[in-house]
Specification:
This protein has 84 residues and is of the alpha/beta class. The model has no long low-confidence stretch (mean pLDDT 90). The longest helix has 13 residues. Helix 2 packs parallel to helix 3. The protein is built from three helices and three strands, in the order E-H-E-H-E-H.
């Protein structure tokens, strides 16, 4: 993955989002978006499709597994975006 890769971070804890952003910045990545609202993750995904999605699994209302299901259901069958 190139340093220009678009990365979407979905985590309900603001401190975790800040930590991931900082780690990505140190690694040289600059093109990322984030949300602490897992429901907004699919919306952000479609506004500007990322090359990678980083999501927490344990979130209230919509957990990471549900986020992954929603993202996969909204992608085309030929589309592939890694979700970690």
């Amino acid at each position: 993955m190139t340093k220009e890769a678009k990365i979407l971070i979905i985590d309900d804890e603001p401190a975790n989002v800040r930590l991931l952003v900082r780690i990505l910045e140190i690694a040289g990545y600059k093109n990322f978006r984030s949300t602490t609202d897992p429901k907004r993750g699919v919306e952000l995904f479609h506004e500007d499709p990322p090359d990678l999605v980083l999501t927490d699994l344990h979130m209230p209302v919509l957990n990471g597994f549900a986020v992954m299901q929603n993202l996969r259901a909204s992608m085309g069958a030929a589309s592939f975006t890694p979700i970690i």
